[in-house]
Write a structure and sequence with these properties.
- The complex is a heterotrimer of chains A (about 350), B (about 270) and C (about 120).
- With about 350 residues, chain A is mostly helical.
- Helices cover about 75% and strands about 0% of the residues of chain A.
- Chain A contains 13 helices and no strands.
- The longest helix of chain A has about 35 residues, at about 320-350.
- Chain A is globular, with a radius of gyration of 20 Å.
- By secondary structure, chain B is an alpha+beta fold.
- Chain B has one domain (about 40-230): 2-Layer Sandwich (Alpha-Beta Plaits).
- Helix content of chain B is about 20%, strand content about 15%.
- Chain B contains nine helices and ten strands.
- In chain B, the strands form four sheets. Chain B has a four-stranded mixed β-sheet.
- In chain B, β4 and β5 (about 120) form a beta hairpin.
- Chain B starts with a helix and ends in a 38-residue tail after the last strand.
- With about 120 residues, chain C is mainly α.
- Chain C folds into two domains: about 1-30; about 45-125, no CATH class.
- Helix content of chain C is about 50%, strand content about 5%.
- Chain C has five helices and two strands.
- Chain C has a two-stranded antiparallel ribbon.
- In chain C, a hairpin with a 5-residue loop joins β1 and β2 (about 80-85).
- The chains are: A mainly alpha (about 350), B alpha+beta (about 270), C mainly alpha (about 120).
- At the A-B interface, α5 and α6 of A face α4, α5, α6 and β6 of B.
C-alpha cells in the first residue's frame, strides 16, 4: 500500500511538473506570438485545434454510458456511468485549454460573450461546451452522493442530446465552410460522432485498467461492443468519403488526400481489425488511431492545398508539442483526481 | 409641438441616412491593361506602404493585403488555357456580398458595413482565433504571427500598424474613401487597370464597365458574391486581343499607354 | 513566545510591509507631476477635469465611433469641427513623450494603444 502511494505521488508530481513546464512554454508563446508554432498563413489551424476537436469527441462520448443507463436502465453500466461523467468533465476542460492556447489574443476571450455572434458556430460551441461542463459537474456531484434522484435522471436525459449536439456543433465548425472542400461534407458530423463513440469507450476501458477498477465484466464487454460498432461506422463513413472524392474525379476533392491521410486511415483500419478480433490491445489502438486521425491529420489536411493550390507543409514545433503534452498531462491530472474521488465514493458505498 | 432646430437637423440627417440607397463598392480589374507590365507591383507597394504592412521574409508567415498570383492559382487549373497560364493576377479581399468570414467571426470583429458593403476589420476586438482565415475561400486574410514592427522598414504614422495576435486584410482603403478618395492601389496603377466605385449606381464607371464587358470572378459558384471583377479582352473571333502582349514577353516590348485599345467587344460589333 | 504571539507578529509584519508604499509617501510626499501643455492651444476637446479623469473612456468611445460607426469628425466644445483621431487630434497638440508617457509612467499605466498607433514624432 505504501509503495503504491509513493509511485502515485511521483506520477502526480511528474504530471504537475509537465503542466508547469507547459505554462512556461505558453508564456513564451504569449510573449513572442504564435510564430513559435508550425502554423502558417496557409495552414491557420494545427495541432491545437485538432486536439480540441478530438477531446470534444471524448467528452461527448459520455453519452455512450449515460444513455443506456438512464434511458434504458442498463444496470450493468452502474459502476461506469460516474466515470464517464468524470471523463467528460476532464475532456471538456482539456478541449477548452486547447482553444485557449491557440488564440492570438486570449486576453480578449470575453469578447465572444460581450459581443455575441449567433451566425458563428464558434460562439455556439463555447456556449454548448460550457453548458455541458456545468451539466456534467452537477451530474457527477449528484452521482457521488448515491443512487440517482428524480431530478438527476432528468438532467442526465438532457445531457444525452446535449452531448450529441456539442460534437455536432464542433463538426459544423468545419462542415459549413464553402471554401474548404475537404471538410464540406454532410458526413462530417456523423463521422465525428462515430469516432467519438469509439474513442470514448476505448479510453474508459483503458482508464479502468489503469486504475485497477472493476467496472464489471458485463460493463466492459458492452463498452468494447460500443467501441467496435462505432469504429466500424467511423471507418465505413471514412471509406464513403474516399469513394465520393475519387469516383467523382473532382481534382480539388482528391487533392487533400496526402500520405498522412492514408496513413491515419490505415491505422484506423488496423485498429478496427484489432477490435473485431477482440484483441486486448484494441482499445489502445482505437484511441491512438483516432487521436491521430482526428487530432492530428484532419485539421491540417483541410488547409493543404490552399485555395490557391499552394502546398505549405505543417510541421509542429517542439514548443507546440510541449504545450500539447502539457495539456494532456493536465487532463491526466484532472482525470486522476476525479476518478479517485469517484472510485472512493463507489467503494464507500459498497463497503 | 415645437421642435428645436438641433433636433430637427438631427432628424433630417437620420432620415437622409435611412433613405439614402446603400452603396455597393466593387472593383473591376482589366487584366489586359494590368499585363502591359507583368513585373509591375505598384499596387502592392502602394497598399503595403500606406497601411504599414510588414515585409516578412518567411513565406509561411507573410502578410499581404494585395498580391499577384499566377492565373491558374487564382482561377483554377481548369480555367487557365495556354494563353493565360502563368500570367500574374492581382488578388485582394473581394469584400463579398455574403462574406464567409463575417458569418464565422465569433466576436463581430469583422462585419459587412451596410452603407457601402465594405467588409470591415476591427483589430481591437479580434481574438485571433483565425476562424475567418479558415472560412475565406480566397485566402485573402493574414495573421500577425509575431510583432510586425521589426519587419517594417518605414512606418507611416498616418495609419496604425497592427500588433501580434490579430488578423488583418485589405480594407478597400475605407480611410481614403471617407475623404472622398480612391483606394491606394487604384490610384497608383500606371495603366488605370483598376476601376473602383459603386456598382449599385448605374452611372458609375465600374457599373458601366461591368455592363459593357464580360467580367469573371474567383469561385463564384461558392455563393459568396465577390465584388472584385476581372476583365479580359476577347475579340469577336474568340482570340484574346488588345494592346497587351504575351505575359512571357520581355518588358522592353511594352507600350506605354492603351489609347488604341479596342473597348468592349460586344456581340455583333 | 506563544503561538498566538508569533502569529500576531507575523500579521503585523505583513501589514507593515504591504502598506509600505502608503507610509513611505506620507513621510516624503512625491513631487507633483508638472506636465508641459501645448503652446498656442487654450482648449482641449473636453474640459480638463473630464479629460484628467476619463480620457481613456473618451478614446474608447472615439475608437468605436470611428471603427465601428464610420464617424470621422466631431464638434469640439469651442465649435471647431475636429477629427476623431488619437494621432491627428490628440497628438496634434500634445507631445506623447513629454505629456502622455510621463504621466502614464508616473501612474504605472501601460495603455495598449501604442502597440499599433504611431506617434508621428517618433515613428519607430
Amino acid at each position: 500500500m505504501t509503495v503504491l502511494a509513493r509511485t502515485y505521488r511521483w506520477r502526480m508530481a511528474l504530471l504537475a511538473a509537465a503542466v508547469a513546464a507547459g505554462v512556461l512554454l505558453w508564456l513564451r508563446q504569449w510573449n513572442q506570438g504564435l510564430v513559435l508554432t508550425g502554423m502558417s498563413r496557409d495552414v491557420a489551424w494545427g495541432l491545437y485545434i485538432g486536439q480540441f476537436t478530438f477531446f470534444v469527441g471524448v467528452a461527448a462520448s459520455a453519452v455512450t454510458v449515460v444513455l443506456p443507463y438512464y434511458l434504458h436502465a442498463w444496470k450493468a453500466f452502474g459502476r461506469v456511468v460516474i466515470l464517464g461523467e468524470m471523463l467528460a468533465i476532464a475532456s471538456v476542460v482539456v478541449a477548452m485549454l486547447f482553444v485557449f492556447v491557440d488564440l492570438g489574443r486570449p486576453d480578449r476571450l470575453l469578447n465572444v460573450l460581450l459581443h455575441p455572434s449567433p451566425s458563428s458556430l464558434m460562439f455556439w460551441d463555447l456556449l454548448a461546451l460550457a453548458g455541458y461542463l456545468a451539466l456534467n459537474v452537477i451530474l457527477a456531484r449528484a452521482a457521488l452522493a448515491g443512487p440517482p434522484a428524480a431530478w438527476t435522471r432528468v438532467m442526465a436525459l438532457i445531457s444525452i442530446p446535449w452531448a450529441v449536439s456539442i460534437h455536432t456543433i464542433t463538426a459544423f465548425l468545419y462542415a459549413g465552410l464553402a471554401g474548404r472542400p475537404f471538410w464540406l461534407t454532410a458526413a462530417m458530423a456523423p463521422r465525428f460522432l462515430a469516432s467519438a463513440f469509439a474513442a470514448g469507450p476505448a479510453l474508459l476501458i483503458l482508464l479502468c485498467r489503469a486504475f485497477r477498477y472493476d467496472a464489471g465484466e458485463e460493463a466492459l464487454r458492452k463498452l468494447r461492443l460500443v467501441m467496435t460498432y462505432a469504429m466500424t461506422a467511423n471507418v465505413f463513413l471514412a471509406l464513403m468519403e474516399v469513394f465520393t472524392a475519387f469516383y467523382s474525379g473532382i481534382p480539388e476533392q482528391a487533392a487533400h488526400y496526402s500520405p498522412w491521410t492514408w496513413l491515419s486511415g490505415g491505422l484506423a483500419a488496423a485498429a478496427l481489425a484489432m477490435a473485431l478480433g477482440r484483441s486486448r490491445y484494441a482499445p489502445a489502438a482505437v484511441f491512438a488511431s483516432l487521436a491521430i486521425d482526428k487530432g492530428v491529420v484532419l485539421i491540417p489536411a483541410g488547409f493543404i492545398p490552399s485555395p490557391e493550390g499552394a502546398v505549405t507543409p505543417y510541421i509542429p514545433t517542439a514548443l507546440e508539442l510541449g504545450i500539447v503534452l502539457a495539456i494532456w498531462c493536465a487532463g491526466a491530472l484532472l482525470v486522476t483526481v476525479l476518478f479517485r474521488i469517484a472510485i472512493a465514493a463507489r467503494q464507500a458505498e459498497a463497503g | 409641438m415645437k421642435i428645436t432646430r438641433q433636433a430637427f437637423l438631427a432628424l433630417l440627417a437620420a432620415t437622409v441616412r435611412a433613405f439614402s440607397k446603400p452603396r455597393r463598392m466593387a472593383m473591376a480589374i482589366d487584366l489586359g491593361k494590368c499585363w502591359k507590365d507583368h513585373g509591375c507591383t505598384r499596387c502592392v507597394q502602394a497598399c503595403h506602404a500606406a497601411h504599414n504592412v510588414p515585409q516578412i521574409p518567411d513565406r509561411r508567415r507573410e502578410i499581404k493585403w494585395i498580391w499577384k498570383e499566377r492565373f491558374e492559382n487564382a482561377f483554377g487549373e481548369e480555367n487557365a488555357g495556354p494563353a493565360v497560364a502563368g500570367a500574374p493576377v492581382p488578388l485582394l479581399c473581394n469584400h463579398c456580398e455574403h462574406p464567409e468570414c463575417v458569418k464565422v467571426c465569433p466576436t463581430g470583429a469583422t462585419w459587412k458595413r451596410e452603407s457601402d458593403g465594405l467588409v470591415m476589420m476591427d483589430e481591437h476586438r479580434c481574438i485571433g482565433c483565425r476562424y475567418c482565415m479558415a472560412a475565406c475561400p480566397y485566402g485573402a486574410r493574414s495573421f500577425d504571427w509575431s510583432d510586425p514592427r521589426p519587419f517594417l522598414r518605414a512606418i507611416d504614422p498616418a495609419y496604425p500598424t497592427r500588433a501580434k495576435g490579430v488578423v488583418e486584410k485589405c480594407t478597400f482603403c475605407s480611410e481614403r474613401l471617407a475623404r472622398g478618395g480612391q483606394p491606394a492601389c487604384v490610384e497608383v496603377c500606371p495603366f488605370k487597370a483598376m476601376v473602383f466605385g459603386d456598382a449599385a449606381d448605374p452611372s458609375s464607371a465600374v457599373a458601366q464597365l461591368l455592363q459593357a464587358r464580360h467580367a469573371f470572378r474567383r469561385k463564384p459558384e461558392l455563393g459568396a458574391g465577390p465584388n472584385v471583377f476581372y476583365l479580359l479582352d476577347v475579340g469577336q473571333d474568340g482570340i484574346l486581343r488588345g494592346d497587351w502582349q504575351s505575359p512571357r514577353a520581355p518588358i522592353a516590348n511594352r507600350r506605354a499607354d492603351c489609347q488604341s485599345a479596342p473597348q468592349g467587344h460586344r456581340e455583333g460589333a | 513566545m506563544s503561538e498566538r504571539g508569533i502569529i500576531a507578529a507575523g500579521i503585523a509584519l505583513f501589514l507593515a510591509g504591504a502598506c509600505f508604499p502608503f507610509w513611505r509617501d506620507a513621510a516624503t510626499p512625491p513631487r507633483p507631476l508638472v506636465l508641459p501643455l501645448p503652446a498656442g492651444e487654450r482648449l482641449c476637446v473636453a474640459p480638463v477635469a473630464y479629460m484628467r479623469a476619463s480620457h481613456g473612456d473618451l478614446l474608447l468611445a472615439w475608437r468605436d465611433r470611428v471603427v465601428r460607426s464610420g464617424e470621422r469628425v466631431f464638434t469640439a466644445p469651442d465649435g471647431r469641427v475636429r477629427e476623431l483621431s488619437l494621432v491627428r487630434t490628440c497628438l496634434g497638440c500634445h507631445q506623447k513623450a513629454e505629456f502622455c508617457d510621463r504621466c502614464h509612467q508616473y501612474t504605472a499605466v501601460a495603455p495598449e494603444c501604442w502597440s499599433c498607433h504611431v506617434d508621428p514624432r517618433s515613428p519607430r
